[in-house]
Design brief:
This is Signal transduction histidine kinase. The protein has 355 residues and is of the alpha+beta class. The protein has ten helices and five strands.
């Protein structure tokens, strides 16, 4: 149960308590004792406040709006003044003093979620009642002390219980929210790990057969074709590792990773970048980098890589001297690729339209 639900339930219970006290206890005291007419005005004023509040409380609203609670509390204090001054002589805190306990419950009903204002209003109500008792001077001080202590302790105890229940409900809701958030983060991390594992498995599809062939001595590391396969696998792996790095410009980072592998093989590579970084989905980045990675895998001597980014298009192009045939590649789904080989030069360009 949320803190709002706890407060709404507590206020409904307080409403029942107020109705029971006003009709079952205070009305008979008002009828059977000789009060001034102001006492009936006070009773009617409290009944009017009850009528205004009961609809909102019965509807299950957790908090009363200030426009209703504060004027209602002021009306309850006014009723306290009218009823107290209308008491018969020497009747303060006695059987005829019907308003003392009832007004306190009204204040609790109206101001349960505003403890500071409630404490102030309840203090004013008790202080005036005691002051009138001292002014009247005909009551029993012992009886008055018992009435004040018992009445206020019950009402303050009810307030403490309500605040504790509301606090515990709020803490429980926060704990549940944090638990759900932790579970969500755990599930996202698990899903990301699974996606990465699946992605690695897919990208390693070309590498694992090569390793198996080398281990079984089906191919020889001295063969030109095997060296080409190793070069392609090295570029693919380096790009795959770079794909999962957290960097501001992932596309440029992956291109740079592929260039680094080629440079380690002795290829002189120049990289030209134009335009500002544009968000590119992971799958599209793979398709943009793949043709350039294939070309660099067979590069021999020099290569030039270009990255051009405009608001409408992203292009990755490479021109290089080739020492062997380009490895086969599946047709990309999101990127347009143009590749040509002339006189030992390989030119490849991949284009992706952002719109």
């Amino acid at each position: 149960m949320t803190d709002h639900a706890v407060l709404a339930t507590a206020r409904q219970v307080l409403l029942v308590v107020v109705v029971a006290i006003q009709l079952g206890l205070t009305l008979p005291a008002l009828v059977t004792h000789d009060h001034a007419p102001a006492a009936w005005v006070a009773f009617a004023l409290l009944a009017a406040v009850l009528a205004l509040v009961s609809g909102s409380v019965a509807a299950g609203r957790a908090e009363l709006p200030a426009a209703l609670a504060l004027p209602g509390a002021a009306a309850a204090l006014t009723s306290s003044f009218l009823a107290t001054t209308a008491l018969p002589g020497g009747a303060s805190f006695g059987p005829a003093d019907w308003a003392f306990g009832l007004v306190g419950w009204y204040l609790l009903l109206l101001l349960a979620e505003r403890p500071k204002i409630l404490a102030t209003a309840l203090g004013a109500h008790i202080a005036f009642s005691i002051a009138w008792f001292l002014h009247d001077g005909n009551g029993d001080a012992g009886t008055a002390g018992v009435v004040v202590l018992s009445g206020t302790s019950v009402q303050l105890g009810a307030l403490v219980i309500i605040r504790v229940l509301v606090r515990d409900a709020r803490l429980a809701a926060q704990a549940a929210t944090e638990h759900d958030a932790a579970r969500t983060r755990e599930e996202l991390a698990r899903q990301r790990e699974q996606d990465l594992r699946t992605g690695f498995a897919g990208q390693l599809g070309a590498v694992l057969p090569l390793l198996a062939d080398l281990a079984d001595e089906v191919v020889s590391a001295g063969d030109e074709a095997t060296r080409l396969r190793c070069s392609v696998a090295a570029v693919q792996l380096r790009r795959l590792f770079a794909e999962n790095d957290d960097v501001p410009d992932p596309l440029l980072h992956e291109l740079t990773a592929c260039v680094d592998v080629a440079e380690r093989r002795g290829v002189v590579v120049s990289l030209a970048v134009s335009g500002v970084a544009t968000p590119v989905p992971t799958e599209v980045r793979r398709e943009l980098v793949a043709p350039m990675a294939r070309a660099l895998a067979v590069a021999d001597g020099r290569a030039k890589v270009s990255l051009l980014r405009t608001p409408d298009e992203v292009r990755v192009a490479v021109v290089t001297q080739a020492s062997g045939a380009l490895p086969d590649q599946d047709a990309p789904a999101s990127v347009a690729v143009e590749t040509s080989v002339h006189g030992g030069l390989v030119r490849s360009e991949a284009r992706w339209r952002t719109t």
